[in-house]
Amino acid sequence: MAIDIRHLLDGSLQAMVADTLGQLPALNTRLNEAVSRERQTGMQMVKSVLERIGEAK
C-alpha cells in the first residue's frame, strides 16, 4: 500500500490507520468466512480425487 508523503505531513495517515483498525472486526469476520468456504471447497476436491483413485483400483 503506497502512501503519499503529504499524508505523513498533514496527519491524515493517522486517520486512515484508525479507520482501518476500526474495520478489523468486520474484516476478520469476512476473512474467516472466506477461509471456511475455501477450506470446504478444498476438502470437496480432495474427496473427489480420493474417490476417483478408489474407483480406478
Automatic annotation (TrEMBL):
Protein name: Colanic acid biosynthesis protein
Organism: Escherichia coli
